[in-house]
Predict the structure.
Amino acid sequence: MVSTMRGAPTRRGRKQTITPATLMLVVFGFLALTFIVLMPAQAEARVLDGAGTASLENSPVEPVEPTAPSSGGQGDVSSSATSTGGGLGVPGLPVISSVVCLRQCVSSSRPTRGAIIAIRGKNLDRVTRVIFRSKSGRIATRLRTRSVGAVRVTVPKRTVRGYLSVVDSGGNRARSPREISIFPISAIPIQVFPVRGPISFGSSGSRFGAGRPGHIHQGQDVSASCGTTLVSIRKARVVYNQWDDGGGNYLVLRNIGTNTNFVYMHMLRRSPLKVGQVVGAGARIGRVGNTGRSYGCHLHFEYWIGPWQTGGKPIDPLPFLRSLLK
Ligand SMILES: [Zn+2]
């Protein structure tokens, strides 16, 4: 786009003396500009046609800067202008880069019928519906929310395994990079490990009961890279979501149907969850951080029988955490 800005003033300056030569220059300049503007949309269309799987996940967000066309490029310019409707400022075609399950999920890549999924990619702000596969054909679904980078939708009840596609208000269509498998609700695990990434339980100093200045360690430290996703272990209600000089950004979850509470400390940022909100097993609750009195990126995790800090008591969470990894 920078080249467009540079080109415009020059063209206007020369327009004042109109000779056949300058007219040619202006026409050619306009065609060149059209080509430059349309190139990103074409590049995306090619990615879509290829329907590559793994490569799409890692494809750069920004389109590759197009190079100026050579003198032989005029034929291409006119053909691309007619195929996309012509004119400058044509909105880009939609592209799906990934599909992530947000709620009622077996895992982030395994939705159930009725799950809420996020479809991420480019140029999704004009998408009006999502098409799923069913045994009797296709199901068009309206969106829950929409933004430039993602649309959210509920997986219809009759959905079966297959590609999904988005359709925008101009009738442009994009297909998911891979088939989406649909799982039964009974496949949703009751409890999952809280850290989505490589972890270490560290040495004796990370354990429950280890000595700390002025107190003993009431939890288990789980080392992981800062930014690693943290999830709710079970279906739980948010009890506290706040800051503490020691614990940093911390979250307390009361597990539904039990008298237990789980505590997550030193999170990178304040959790986006609201107090009182209920989250399912595996729901994203924040990211591993190093906030508060913390020396290195890790999750400080506590397991309480009864209310946290107000009558309950903490137990050693390590055997439980290990059991979640089996
Ligand atoms: Zn700790």
Summary: The first helix runs from residue 2 to 14. The helical segments are 2-14, 20-50, 54-57, 74-83, 318-324. The two ends are 52 Å apart (CA to CA).
